[in-house]
Amino acid sequence: MPHVVIIGRPNVGKSTLFNRLVGKKLALVDDQPGVTRDRRFGDAELLGLAFTIVDTAGWEDDDPSSLPGRMRAQTEAALEGATVALFVIDARAGLTPLDEEIGRHLHESSVPVVLLANKAEGRAGDSGLFESYALGFGDPIAFSAEHGEGLADLFQALLPLIGEPEEEEERSEDEPEYDPKSVLKLAVVGRPNAGKSTLINRLLGEDRLLTGPEAGITRDSIAVDWEWRDPATGESRPIRLIDTAGMRKKAQVVDKLERLSVADARRAIDFAEVVVLLLDATRGLEHQDLKIASMVLEEGRALMIAINKWDVAEDASGLFNGVRAALDDGLAQVRGLPLVAVSARTGKGLDQMLGAAFSLRDAWSRRVPTAALNRWFDDALTANPPPAPGGRRIKLRYITQAKTRPPGFVLFGTRLDMLPESYRRYLVNGIRRELGFDAVPIRLTLRSPKNPFA
């Protein structure tokens, strides 16, 4: 698939263009400059032309060790291997010295360049459009990413550089519901500065995501496709790693951009199958971590906990046991969540974490045969019959599994509105313990027959 990279200084509309081409609001957009920090990939389609579009951070002229300088390095890395570069300028602001510097850099590269004069709706952008000829990239395209103007001209410019799209093979509609060898969608969440981006960079073996000592560097949720070689079997397993913005206490989030970043992280959790909640070993388990964990479980995702920075942890054994006890106490609905100690700096425990993530997804996707489920159900009722409030017995007739991912069960019986919550927990814990669901969230719905005389 051809790679088309969007390049430009901050606040010229690169992320708006990205969203326009992928047809979804995937990238965060705001009036302030410098919102995008990491490369974001998306599947774009323009009048039948299919390609991968890459959003990048705004190009800034700063010290390479500074945050803007490291962002620029990420943008330069995106150009390597690109098929086409879309050089975006702000037609209303006109040409700037930074635009000219970016132009010089692009002339030195071997990547073909298409010049987009964005924000050119109306006549306010005419002067900037004419000025852009001085950059030496031929005729600029008058464009409006906000309003979708100029898409046909962009198509004509990309067509000779990308070529006709290959036709996709038709997918069978009879694909199995769950394939254990399918891509694992794994999101990494946690408080700011827990080391989420550093951990993903360690797995990838490259500085794919922007990192540093500053808290809150990551803003967009970034997905990266990767192959992990399972050391136990030697098998390659596909994983989509999803990095997310750090989640602070709601009362501390006052900046609009941070609110957008947290909302994007929550959407990433919805998209994921397994979520790794990353803790900082130097800070231990905090109340905010339990709130994030509860949110993940409420969304029905499979959850595991990883304690990062284990190489610098003090009293490691005491810390691990303390976190284990606090999790079992604070998340009593899913006792026994997988807990691993890792170090994004040294790579310790990362293979163990990924192996546990695949096992957890298997449990999250598990379907129990109806016969086996009701054998367990009969044994559970015999061992602990339901109570009889007011002297009238609650009749539990049978149970069935309605769905997977997360597992959902429907319990049929009479007087179910009188069933105590403690007995409901007894059944859920039994399903989890006896039927191989481990510590995944389970939904149990109670259903009574309708009264025909009501």
What labels would you give this structure?
Rossmann fold; elongated; 3 domains; 6-stranded mixed beta sheet; GMP Synthetase, Chain A, domain 3; 454 residues
Q: Return the structural class.
A: alpha/beta
* Biggest sheet architecture: 6 strands, mixed
Output the strand order for the largest sheet: 2-3-1-4-5-6
Mean pLDDT, as a whole number? Answer: 85
Protein described:
With 454 residues, this protein is an alpha/beta fold. The protein has 3 domains: 3-162, Rossmann fold (3-Layer(aba) Sandwich), CATH 3.40.50.300; 184-364, Rossmann fold (3-Layer(aba) Sandwich); 370-447, 2-Layer Sandwich (GMP Synthetase, Chain A, domain 3), CATH 3.30.300.20. It is 32% helix and 21% strand. The chain has 12 helices and 15 strands. The strands form 3 sheets. A 6-stranded mixed sheet has the order 2-3-1-4-5-6, sandwiched between helices. Strand 13 and strand 14 (408-414) form a beta hairpin.
A few lines on this structure:
This protein is an alpha/beta fold and 454 residues long.
Topology:
Layout: E1 3-7, H1 14-22, E2 40-46, E3 49-55, H2 67-79, E4 84-90, H3 97-108, E5 113-118, H4 126-131, E6 141-142, H5 151-162, E7 184-190, H6 196-204, E8 222-229, E9 236-243, H7 256-271, E10 274-280, H8 287-298, E11 302-308, H9 316-330, E12 339-341, H10 350-364, H11 370-383, E13 395-403, E14 408-414, H12 421-434, E15 443-447
Parallel strand pairs: 1-3, 1-4, 4-5, 5-6, 7-9, 7-10, 10-11, 11-12, 14-15
Antiparallel strand pairs: 2-3, 8-9, 13-14
